[in-house]
Amino acid sequence: MTSDPVYHSNWTETDGLPVAVINGGRGHPHAHHPLAGWRMKANIYLDGTVRPFSGEFGSRFFSMAPMDPAARRAQLKFPDGTMVVLDLNILPEVERQLHCGRFIARVTLPGGCLEQEAVLADPAGRELLLAWTWHPQQVGSESPRLWLPVDAYGGNMHGQAMVADLPDYGRLAWSVCGSHVSTSGATFMASLDTPFVMRVAYDPHGSDPMPPTAADLPRARSACDAFWRARIANLSPGTPAVPHHELAWSLMLAAGTAVADGTRGRLCLTNGALYAFNHLSNDAWQPGGMYSFRDGNQVAFGLARTFPELARDQLLRTVEAFDTESGIPQMSTAAPGVPYLRYAPGGEFETPADSCFSSDQVWWWLIALTEYIAVSNDSEILAETVCDASGHEATVRQHLDRLVRFAVERVGFGAHGLPRFLAGDWSDYLGRVGSRGRGESFMNAGLLVVACERTAARLRLRGEAVAADALTALAAGQHQACAPFCSGPWFPRATDDDGAVVGDGDDRLYMDSQPWLVLARVGDAAMRKRALLACVERLMTPIGPKLIDRPLQYAEIANRSNVYYPPGSGENGGVWVLTGWWLAMALAAEGLTAEADAVAAACARDRHHALYPDEWWSPFMAPDGIDGPDSVHYGKSQQAADAYPQPWAQGFMRECNPNEVAKYPFQLWYAANRGRALLPL
At a CB cut-off of 8 Å and minimum separation 6, what does 218 contact? Predict the structure, then answer.
C-alpha cells in the first residue's frame, strides 16, 4: 500500500446509479473512463482528454492517444493573459465523477470553477456531447476563453477524420455552440460567458450532425441516466460480499464492450478494452482478430437477463461464424475483408482440423444459449433461420445439432474417453498439452456435461425426447470417463499427448477445471467437496485465486505452453478473478456458502483497491490476470511483456488491457443466483 495513491477514489450511489468520485492523487496518463456505446465509443482520460472512436468497422480511432508527444491539450486563457493547460492530472484541485455513460470534472481555478462534461446519451447511437462551463466566483466578472485543439477531439477544422482513408466508412464530424466562437488553424476559441457545447458524431454516410444547444446537455444527461437505471433495475440487490454499486458498474463495463460489427451486421460482445480497442496505440485499426467468440458467449451468459438483445445477437453471430471444417472461430474483427481467426499457428497436429484454436467453443455457446432462453423466455430464437460460414442455411435448432456433431466428431475424444485438448481449451496457455492431437481436457468434460444436460432439459420441454436422450447419454459418457480419476485430493487438469495426467495429486492443482467438474456433478459429494476445499486452501489469495498452486518454472514451460510467462504471471500462477467466480458458484452449489462468500469477497474489486490503491485501474476496471504472490509484480495486471519479445507486447496487459470483462457476467450471475446450481436447468 502507498500513502499517496495514484487517485483518491470513492464509490457511491445516487438515485440507484453508481458514481465513482475521484480526487487528486499523483495521476496516471493511461487512466480513463470508457463511455462505451455499441457504435460511438469514447475514452475519457482522467487528465481531461476525450478520445472518440468507432465501435464499427474495426473500432477505428478518430484522434491520437493523449500520452502521445504530439497530442495537444485544451487551455484556458484568463483576462490577465495567464494560460492554464487543462491537464487534470497536474492541476491541484480536481474532482471527477464517473457515471454510467457520462463523465464530469470540476477544476477549481483562480476566479472560479471549470466544469467539463461528456455524455453518451444513447449506447446504440453515434454521437457524443461535450461541454465546458465556467462558474465564476463573482457574478459579472470576465470569463476566461477556452482554447480547444480540435485534432485532440476527433477532427480538423473541416470536421474530417484524422485517418485519411476513413471516409470509405464515413467520418467524424462535429458542430458547436457557444459565445464569441472563433477559429485559428485547428483550434477553437470561445468565451466561457456561456457554456461551450460540442456535438461529436460518427456517421458512416458522412452526414453532418445537428448543431447542439445548451438545452441538449441536460436532456442527454437525463436520457443516459434513464437508460442505465432501467437496466440496473434488473440486477440483484447485491450481497455483503458483492455490493450493489459494484454489480451495477460490472454491468456497465460488460455491456459497454459490445460493438456493432459494421461489416457483418451484428452486435457482438467482446472481452474488454484490448478486444475492442488498444487505447495506448495511435493505430487507426484495432489489433487484428480481437472479438473473441468464447468470451463473447461467456458475456452473453451473464447479460441474458439485463441485455437480452446483446446476448441474442451474440448467439446468432456465433452460428453465422460456424464452419463445418473448423467449428466456431477463435476470434474475428469488424474490419472489412479480414477473415475469422480459425487455426492455431504452428503446432504438431496430424490433421489441419486438429489445429482449431479452441476445443471448448461449442459448450460455451450451448451454456449461454440455454441461459438466454431460460431467463428471456425467447424460445423463438431456435426457429431463427441463419446461414453459417459454410453456406448452410438452417434454423438455430438445426444448427445446434451440427455444432454438437462437430464437437463430438471433429474435436472428438481421446484414449481415456475425454474431450481432446487440441490447441487449447479455455486455457490456451496450456497449448502444448495436446499439441499432437492426443491430449485430453477434464475441463472440457465438465463443460460438456453442463452444456448437454442443460440443453437436454430444454429439448424435453419441447417434446424432443430422442434428441434429449442422446445429449444425456453424451454427458453420462463423461461421468464414466472421469470416474477413474475421482479418488485423489482434487480433479486432474488434463492428460497430455503421451497419456500422462496433468494436475493430479502429485503434480499441481489447476484451478480452472475444478469448479466446472463440480458444477457438472462429476464424482461423489465427498470428492467434489475435497476438490473445492483444496482450491480454497491452496489457491486463494486476498485478491482472488491463483490459477496454479505452484507456477511452472522456465525449464518446465516448454512441455506445457508456447508462452513463457514468468512464475506468478498470467496463467502461470497469476491471480485469475474469473475463475474465482466459477469457484464461488461451485462452492455455493455444494452448500459451502460461507466459503463461497469468502471467495466472492476476495474477488470483488473493492478488495483489490483496498490493498492496492496505487493501481490506476482499481477498482473501476480489472485486467485479464493479476500477478500473483510468486511474482515481483504481485497485485499489478499481468506482465505479458516478459513473455513476448515483440514490440507490441511491451506494456501489453499491464496498461493496455485494464478491462477484461468475462469475469463480470459470472459475478452478476453469482449475485443473482447465489446457491442455485447450473444443473438442473
Answer: none
